[in-house]
Amino acid sequence: MLAGVDRARILRPAVAATSRPARSPMAYSITETCIGCTACVKACPVNAISGTRNEMHVIHADICVDCGLCGYVCPPEAIVDFNGTVATRFKRRKDADRIAVVTPERCTACDFCFDVCPFDAIKYRAVDDGFYNVAEVNPDVCKGCDALCVAVCIKEAIRLVPREEALPDRKAAEDKVAASQ
Q: N or C: which end of the chain has fewer CB within 10 A?
């Protein structure tokens, strides 16, 4: 071995001067509080975020354009900027522990809420011997996110209420549905 010579430099060819400069650190990252709702994946204009539903997602630095849309739509505020500050334009809700409740008399089973729920918390319950369906929210799965189901309900059959109030309301709605069968 030659004294004072870097062996790795001899074995590795020099990088061409025209190579792409090193990219600065990415501005946004996803923390362990990610719930896997896929809202960031849907919002990303360059498909820089990947992950499986209900599992932590990842921002790919080589694709990300640092636009911040992911932080804008993240319900659990799991996306932080390079300073570690939550990347969001919304103030945290005072009533963050809300869940959706369906009023069965108004529900027409139109599929809008079913399709928009990122947590698959909405299912249908058959009434009238299966001729008619009513949306039903699973309180164990519902995160009360950003009222997506409320926003798309054309019959105003869904509302978000604090969880402790929702469970008795849900029971009353179930009783009404059961009575109509």
A: N
Q: What's the rounded Cα separation, in Å, for the pair 95 and 35?
A: 18
- 157 is a domain residue: yes
Residues sharing a CB contact under 8 Å with residue 6, sequence separation 6 or more, in sequence order: none
Predicted local confidence at residue 107, as pLDDT: 92
What's the confidence (pLDDT) of residue 179?
Answer: 75
Residues of the chain with pLDDT under 50: 1-2, 5-24, 90-95
Beta bridge partners of 50: 58
Q: Give CA separation, 122 vs 119, 143, 148, in Å.
A: 8, 11, 12
Q: Can you give the three-state secondary structure of the chain, one letter per residue?
A: CCCCCCHHHHHCCCCCCCCCCCCCCCCCEECCCCCCCCHHHHHCCCCCEECCCCCCCEECCCCCCCCCHHHHHCCCCCEECCCCCECCCCCCCCCCCEEEEECCCCCCCCCHHHHHCCCCCEEEEEECCCCEEEEEECCCCCCCCCCHHHHHCCCCCEEEEEHHHHHHHHHHHHHHHHHHC
Expressed as residue numbers, the domain containing 149 is: 98-180
pTM: 0.45
Does 79 share its domain with 124?
no
